Amino acid sequence: MMKAKNNDTNKGFLIDSILNNLSDKEISPSDKVKLSLIRKEKTDKPIIYIGAGTCGLAAGADQTINATKEYLISKQIDAEIIEVGCIGLCSSEPLLDVQIPGFNRISFEHVTGDKVEKILNSVFNLETPETDILGQFPKDKNQNWENVKPINEHPFFAPQKRVVLKNCGIINPVNIEQYISLGGYQGFLKTINSNSPIEVCDLIEKSGLRGRGGGGFPTGKKWKFAFNTKADQKYLICNADEGDPGAFMDRAVIEGDPHRLIEGMAVAAYGIGASKAYIYIRAEYPLAIKRLKIALDQARKYGLLGNNIFETGFDFDIKVKMGAGAFVCGEETALIHSIEGKRGMPRPRPPFPAVSGLFGKPTIINNVETLSNIPEIIARGQEWFSSIGTESSKGTKVFALSGKINLTGLVEIPMGTTIRDIIFNIAGGIKNNKKFKSVQIGGPSGGCITEANLDIQVDYESLIKVGAMMGSGGLVVMDEDNCMVDISKFFLQFIQRESCGKCIPCREGTKRMLEILESITQRPNNESPNAALERFKGILQLERLGKVIKETSLCGLGQTAPNPVLSSLKWFREEFEEHIFERKCSAGVCTELRTFKIDVDKCIGCTICAKKCPTNAIIGAKKQPHFIVEEKCIGCGTCEEVCKFDAISIS
Amino acid sequence: MKINFNIEVNNQSVEAIKGETILDALNRNGIKVPTLCHMKDFTPTGACRMCVVEDEITGKLITSCSFPVAEGMKIKTHSPKVVEARKTIVELLLSNHPDDCLYCVRNRNCELQNLSDELQVRERRIIGKKNNYNIDNSGVSIIRDPDKCILCGRCVEVCEKVMGVSAIDYVNRGSQTIIGTAFNKGLNVSSCVNCGQCIMVCPTGALTEKNHFPEIREALNDPAKTVVIQYAPAISVSLAEEFGIESGKDINGIMNSALRKIGFNRVFDTSFAADLTIMEESAELINRITNNGVLPMMTSCCPAWVKYAEEFVPEFLPNISSCKSPQQMMGSVIKNYFAKTENLKAEDIYSVSIMPCTAKKFEAQREEMTTHGISDVDAVLTTRELGQFIKLYGIDISKIEPEVADSPLGTRSTAGKIFGASGGVMEAAIRTAYYKLTGKELVKFQIPEVRGFEERKETKIKIGELEIGVAVVNGLVNAKKLLTEIKEGRTDIHFIEIMACPGGCIGGGGQHIGSNEDDLKSRMKSLYDIDTNETLKVSHKNPEIIEIYDKFLGEPLGHKSHELLHTNYDKRDVLR
Amino acid sequence: MEDKTINILEQYPNSGNDSLIPILQEVQDAEGYISEKSVIKIGKHLDIPSSKIFGVATFYNQFRFQPLGKYHIQICRGTACHVLGSATVLSTLEKHLKLKAGETSRDGLFSIEVVACIGACGLAPVICVNGKFHAKVTDKSIIEIIENYRKENDESEK
Predict the structure, then answer these.
(1) Sheet containing strand A105-108, strands side by side
(2) Of A345, A496, A551, the CB nearest to B175
(3) B1 falls in which pLDDT band (50, 70, 90)?
(4) Which chain C residue lies closest to B573 (C-alpha atoms)?
(5) Dist CA A274 CA A314 (whole Å)
(6) Which of A329, B51, B58, C78 could disulfide-link A245, Cβ–Cβ 3.0 to 4.6 Å?
């Protein structure tokens, strides 16, 4: 009961003294204290923050939370537990931070349930624990933890410039007060009070912000198309259908800082003249959906969404629409069809959605990261934003790092950072000291970057120059144990599953390309003498098909679908040739190309391998060493698995 | 106002109209661009990518079917890039096609085959895994072979936008996509009304009608059987196209002769039965109007409409005329009246009909369409199949002399003949109703307000003191709109003619595949020319009609008529 | 017996085509899958032909037409997971349960579904069983995880 009342007081204070008082007038010292409490810069009781994004939960954060609760009860400590989003360092999950009154917030990594007690014990005794420290968050007037580095000096965080991820993992995502106390929604209210919509479009255009969903179209310019189309109703759609396998920044932003997105959308809607908006979000992100809905309710209660927002005459509200699992719905017209309740099949453009989109009305579709940049641009100005990045690509970009690297997670870096920096400095290089092979960027639309191109500076144009693309920013690192033919096949399988099936080049073409790749990674029985030649011809078809698919497909999915294959083929042609001519996969990934041999000294003739062999490729009499008939073997490895005498191995 | 400007096509200036697509501009200027998914007057779907042209300014390929013309546009329609793209697309379609062209009913009339030829596909560069889907043989009229389907989506569009039925849609996604029914059930349990318009737009042999040649041939070879045949009003003006003769040419006499040469023992004209239908239906209309019956009355000639009503608007079943369709009236008359006059047993007669329609195959096997357990009609051929049948029997129609149909049941008025066009039933019925109510013939028989291809035609007809409102619709989606208005309270319409197919039976689902709008217009014109040129313009003056009522039926709506010529329908539960 | 589909439809009065997907999602949540009967009811409510509803439902990965197993195993086949061996995890699981992805075991205990990307790439390979995530799964640990669920079930049935 007390708590609710407390919140209400804060609501009145925040609305009256902060949101309704946007002039730069100095606020009173007592209000300052109040603010710093809401901001959690100061605290009157201990706060324990636990990273409870999807990645945190996957790493066991729920056990951490339970253990923490039990600990607090057993020690009778009155402390607050706050579930925060992901700070970005997934490989260190579960993360647990503790903020004790008067002390800096201190952060720990790998805090599984069993470690909670030990860590909390020492922290509450004001002793620095020996291990698992990530760093501390220095704040004025707070006491420092000795021998603990500030978190922004951690090699993972030091090179980052966090704009979109600023609050992720730091603040309580479902606490609108904290967001407002840190300056949130003030830019939005200032804008609708004192700027015209076209001024907003202008500002965003001048800032140089480009779409973060893949294409990189200038955001302000796009808004102006809708602004200039007269209509009784316009729509804004936030594309949170993050289907790109290997990208998860949208999820993390929504889970970690949903109000930033809502504010960005509100500004965008004002700019284009939309009173209604949708967030189209993957159903696979239940936690993000939950937090988003809570945040939307909070914003409505504060009058930041709804009719006549803060008596400006601006009406705006947001609906959440759950996607139902179709990668192609990331494409604008497919997404619109999906919201309309149809099969998510793209349609030809023109007409562009900005002219005729959802329900035939002008519609602007921006992705989560794009929209989440808006509040900061509004608050700090276009010059500030355009001072970051390269000539053509302004601001920062969030990348999702995964694969064979030491540190995985989300990083936000200024455009222009080199790929080498990202992989070898921020992410700590390749796991287990293996050799770097390539990094796949841009998911199923992108391509791979090899050692030779690691020093390119990340921006839209330079990535395209080397045959990759920004895409949504998934960076999957591969080492010498990965096979590029297999990776190509993987992406084609993905595209095959996810192609909508409408246009012929994408539907049939990618299927044929996949079949060709399968033919070179499979071991056919009874191979004819010119089979290798046939397979080589297949490779030639691969390139021709890829070109036509790119040129003729209906939508972006098809137009970029061949990219991963063409890119691998360009940089790793010798790997393809090895598969074709030598029927060999050096990385040992393409299992069907493996050949097995039986060590006659170890084989006791138990016959188990012969019995389990699916193609009857093993012969031999009981109690006599067995042999593999290579022509019949399909390389499945069952014999190796079942042999109890280690007699079978890959040759 | 049309704004015209020029665009550059293949380095030449070509006139374009603002708002039109590149494809329209090209076609108007004599440049052909291949298409597969494109259908005139439908929103372009952009699915097939065959119509791509090169935008010289950007170097990109754009689909001409969907891209509007713009000033300053420069395009190439047959650049190497364009041709390579189109050819590859066709090769992709062929790469997992069943490749049984020689055995396919659409051999030599297949758009995929034509494109492959036009684009000079001469070697198999791409080999794909075949799909091996099951053929849906469950329907009475239509067979679906998903292996031959190229997913152009034209059938889906027609089924939804012209018929308002949506029995089929895209199912699954990606390379698993097929066109299918709800839950992949057979067409027989779907809401399909068998209109066959999907077959008309199918570029390949994925959709075909169910063929009954073996049964018919067996009957023809059976000396114990008297094999009779009837043909619908639209057939004589449509068959010519099957033989490459100019569209709309009336070859009734030659057709009669060909049918006899094949071996049919009697050749009857369904238009006679159309006259009979008019006698019954106009009597029913008068009866409903004068005795406060259920109005508006709706025609029952079109079996696709009847099935649609049973499934979608059963509340209107009482409005549907109880008259059987001309095909079924003729069938019934043949197996009862004709059998009696010829001293034949009904079961010794094998009765075939030729219809411009696939739904007639369904109608012929309906339970309602039997007398004493014997089907009124035993087999139905479409116009297309008749063409094949004539060829099968080696008949050279260019060398044979015209003959007249057999009598009785072979003489018709032109009122019966114009049944083949949308509005024809209405016009014929009004002619006779007018006479019956006023005792006088109309001064001018033509009712131009109900003629033509418009989706809906409405007019008021003054018959003596009485003014009745009539409406004619074609395309079931238009019927649905009209019925909604009636449900919402319109009462000014008393009689409605509903035909499922655009333009009526001349545009039926059993007609020649590959005809265009002009061909359909020629067929319609031909029917109305017959009406203009001949003198017997009303059903009630048809001497054979007068004779059959004198000798056999008694009077319209009489006891015998009720037994043989009328029926009624029930609500039908299907997966819809 | 209460009709869950009808209850859901009552929450959507006077709705149009754009309510179709949310309704399908709710119906599947309530009933576990999309049945033919539900499709017909939804079609009547929204005035959409059942072929269209089936077309929409078969387009999206989320919808299924038969009930799931008690333990629904989602295997992430995103890029990061693939690079770290999710293909092997999947094939081990399929072999272990003698079940293909997309199927449900005869005893109704397990079903396997391949999903595009769960969005936990930093902890790849990831699987999700009834909403609970398991990170950094290997071909060894997957069997352990599954057998733990089997044990849990056996104990609950005792």
Answers:
(1) A80-84, A47-51, A96-99, A105-108, A133-137
(2) A496
(3) low
(4) C40
(5) 10
(6) C78
- As given in the structure block, the two tokens for residue B444 are 């001018």
A320 Cβ neighbours under 8 A, 6+ residues apart? A278, A279, A281, A289, A292, A293, A296
- pTM of structure: 0.94
Which chains does chain C touch, 3 or more C-beta pairs < 8 A? A, B
Chain A partners (3+ C-beta pairs within 8 A): B, C
Say if C53 is an interface residue toward chain B (CB within 8 Å): yes
Query: Is residue B349 pLDDT above 80, yes or no?
Result: yes
- Give percent of chain B above pLDDT 90: 96
**Would you call A279 helix, strand, or coil by DSSP?**
strand
Which helix (H) or strand (E) segment holds residue B559: the answer is helix B559-565
Percent of the residues in chain C that have a pLDDT greater than 70, as a whole number: 99
Both tokens assigned to A647: 């007699």
pLDDT at B329 over 70: yes
Q: Which sequence positions of B are flagged as catalytic? A: 281, 284, 301, 321, 360, 363, 368, 505
More confident residue, B5 or A631: B5
CA distance B475 to chain C (A): 18
> Which of residues B421 and A524 earns the better pLDDT score?
B421
Residue spans of chain A under pLDDT 50: 1-6
pLDDT for residue C72 = 93
Q: Do C59 and A339 touch (CB under 8 A)?
A: no
For an interface test with B, which of A497, A508, A513, A539 has the most B Cβ atoms less than 10 Å from its Cβ? A508
Q: Read off the pLDDT band of B371 (50, 70, 90).
A: confident
- Whether the CA torsion B569, B573, C1, C3 is positive or negative: it is negative
Considering only residues C88 and A293, tell me which one the structure prediction assigns the higher pLDDT: A293
Chain A residue numbers with beta carbons less than 8 Å from the beta carbon of C83 are 402-404, 476-478, 482, 487
Q: Are B251 and B240 in contact (CB under 8 A)?
A: yes
Half-sphere exposure of B357 (CA within 13 A, CB side): 34
What's the pLDDT at A536? 80
**C-alpha distance from residue B274 to each of B412, B426, B428, C48 (Å):** 8, 12, 9, 37
B 88-147 near A (Cβ less than 8 A): 88-89, 92-93, 95-96, 125-126, 128-129
Q: In the predicted model, is pLDDT for residue B133 greater than 60?
A: yes
Mean pLDDT to the nearest integer, C45-54: 96
Which residues of chain C does B168 touch, with a Cβ-Cβ cutoff of 8 Å? 51
Q: What is the mean pLDDT of residues B157-178?
A: 96
User: Does C102 touch chain B if contact means CB atoms closer than 8 Å?
Assistant: no
CATH of domain A396-482: 3.10.20.600
Tell whether A198 is within 8 A of chain C (Cβ).
no
- Residue A339 at interface with chain C, using a CB cutoff of 8 Å: yes
Domain boundaries A176-386, CATH class? alpha beta
DSSP letters, C92-135, are: HHHHHHT--TT-B-TTSSEEEEEES--S-GGG-S-EEETTEEE-
Q: Is the domain of B250 the same as that of B383?
A: yes
Question: What domains appear along chain C, each with residue ranges and CATH number?
Answer: 4-59 (no CATH), 71-157 (3.40.30.10)
> Residue A248 is nearest to which of C61, C77, C120, comparing CB atoms?
C120
Supply the mean pLDDT for chain C. 91
Domain final residue pick, B78, B105, B129: B129
CA dihedral B270, B274, B280, B281 (to 10 degrees): 140
Residue C158 has pLDDT above 80, yes or no: no
Helix (H/G/I), strand (E/B), else coil: C155: helix
Class of domain A38-153 (CATH, top level): alpha beta
The interface predicted TM-score (ipTM) is: 0.93
Question: Which domain range does residue B155 map to?
Answer: 142-210
Nearest to A501 among B89, B93, B173 (CB): B173
Measured between CB atoms, does B161 come within 8 Å of chain C? no
B219 vs B214, B224, B332, CA distance in Å? Answer: 9, 9, 19
